[in-house]
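Allow me, if you will, to draw on your knowledge of protein folds for a short while. The matter concerns a single protein, recorded as an amino acid sequence and a row of backbone structure tokens. Could you please explain, in whatever detail you think fit, how the structure tokens follow from the sequence? I remain grateful for any guidance, and I place the record below:

…
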Amino acid sequence: MKKYLQVYPILLSELFPFYFYKIDNDKQVNTL
């Protein structure tokens, strides 16, 4: 469990920027 808690924030930091980048791209596509 401790190992999982150490790895999880790393996974989040990897996934969240990509997720928000996708949202930004969708917004740009919608405004165009």
